[in-house]
Amino acid sequence: MLEIIQKPWPWYVAGVLIGLTVPALLLLGNKHFGISSAFRHICAACIPANISFFKYDWKRERWNLFFVGGVLLGGLVATQFLNNPNPIQVSEKTAHALQALHITTDNELMPASIFSFENLFSLKGLVFFVLGGFLVGFGTRYAGGCTSGHSIMGLSTLQWPSLVATCCFMAGGFVMVHLVFPWLMRVL
Amino acid sequence: MLFGIVFVKAEIISWYRIQEMFRLHSFHMYGVIGTAVGVGMLSVWLIKKFKIKTMQGETVVFHKRQFHWGNVIGGFLFGLGWAITGACPGPLFAQIGSGFLVVIVTLLSAVAGTWLYGLLQNKLPH
């Protein structure tokens, strides 16, 4: 049993479990699945600075903060106790493409050549952590949601603005990987 | 918490999986998101069809989303960030839990980005 759990889970298992979050939250008390809202609640709770966008009763949305706290803990549990002993399988084509950009595929979930503290105060760190995070936070709020709020919750309830947003998420990702990335990795 | 476990175990939090997705080299992420949307759609349909109430006995309400240009501009900006960090907001938290502590910086930056949006909200095209 543990062996099965330790192996990477197939997409249909993950997809079903993530999809079931939608009705679970709705039936637990009319909660709408959306993770990027947590950033807004953190702002409202810690640094509201008299901005009207952050003036609301964030405590009523506390469940959202518990939810992301749970996600963090889940990450910890999965890594500590259910860890896959084998190195991560990356598709050969992607591995080759990354090799050409001098990113080696190591055994972890994230490339250590980028996601380490040594890079924090370099240009690389500035781009991958600070700029990347900033785009995620600013973009999701401007768009009114992220992959969970728009792509999963929004599409589940057949909202066409969410379909537009999802297509734009993908467009941004394709532009980054295919057009900006090759240039970026040369400069950094 | 289950959610975080799913994120890690299905390697959705992996930077490589996101790269594969945007390079069209792997079906994995499309399968995950596609199945999730399918299951979500089916359950929303069932809730509506059978008028299933919440645990507190309330009617389930759905908010209609209004289109605005932020869906496009903000969506595109998020897409750029998604490809760099290899994470959308949920997996960001799971990456930290998995021990990639440097991602805390990414998280703080995301909070800062949201804050700046709040500050500029009225000046941005919507």
Task: Describe the protein's architecture and organization.
The complex is a heterodimer of chains A (188) and B (126). Helices cover 65% and strands 0% of the residues of chain A. With 188 residues, chain A is mostly helical. The N and C termini of chain A lie far apart (45 Å). The mean pLDDT of chain A is 92. By secondary structure, chain B is mainly α. The mean pLDDT of chain B is 93. The interface between A and B is large, with 119 and 108 residues.
What is shown here, in short?
The complex is a heterodimer of chains A (188) and B (126). With 188 residues, chain A is mostly helical.
**SSE order of chain B, as H and E?**
HHHHHH
Strand proportion of chain A, as a percent range, falls in under 5%
Low-confidence stretches of chain B: none
* Envelope shape of chain A: globular
Write down the overall mean pLDDT of chain B: 93
Specify the structural class of chain A: mainly alpha
Characteristic terms for this protein:
heterodimer, A: 188 residues, mainly alpha, B: 126 residues, globular
